[in-house]
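User: I'm curious whether this sequence folds into something compact or stays loose and floppy. Could you predict its structure so I can see for myself?
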Amino acid sequence: MVDHSAYFDDSNSDTTKRDLVFAGLVSSDETWRQFCLEWRLELARPPTIKHLKMAEANGLRGQFAGWTRDARDRKLQALAEVLNRFRPPWTFDISVSREEYKSNVSPASPRGLSTPYFAITFAAVSAVARHLASESVITPVKFVFDEQKGVDTDVALFFDYMVENLDPASRGLIKLPIGYGDDMQNLPLQAADMLAWHIRRQREGEEDPTVVHRAEYLRSDRHIEMHIPTEMLVRWGTAFSQVLPILQTLKTKGEWQRFRTGADQAKRDGFRPSHGNDPVDTLATIRADWDKFRGKS
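Assistant: Here's the prediction. I'll summarize afterward.
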């Protein structure tokens, strides 16, 4: 069997009126190994950079400080051609409106879930798993995301519960726990950063034909896109506010850390909630099972 890994990175602009985009690439581990050798060689080829971060490339700063735009574009195209030579069979992009999330979910959310990163991380993993299951892939996929301070711990708190609500075929394709890496060191994450940045800029109406062309060039032939709709965000906000109102009190860092410590201990003690069919049902089930669990302890 062929082992696969999925690498995801995010891209967003300075304004909350625009979407947060997660983009990912799924390929075999052997292909990723070969890709890393070639990507590293291209990074080292003059003019040399130690790593690729699209924010630095776009702003001609960091590794690209002092570069001309033409030299920057040639380097980016050379790196894009490396990725194309090891073209992943699947690429994905998952997006959510930060403004809609802030309006509908954040006010009812605890500190650890007040940003869209948890929701979009789960959406990305479930989208990949469901799609690969539909193509009869049977080998579990390792997921690696660009690290975000504190996000990995918050995601780990609920993630395995959420995964259990997927259908068995999709659930079986997710290799837990999901991982996090430093995109200055992890080369596939640099490719994911390149894909995410170009897709976001294209969606925002970028007029530079080089950027638009490269956005299309980086997508695989089987590219899957998903946007988390407003009605789903409204449902999540309703779930938090109506079913678990206590979560709204966990707004400070200290309150959230104490809750997280208690929840981690409960998992170690054997707390496993039943499945739910949607956000409200799932949280209601967790609430009922939690009350029963605490009553026995």
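Summary: DSSP finds twelve helices and six strands in the chain. The longest strand covers residues 19-28.
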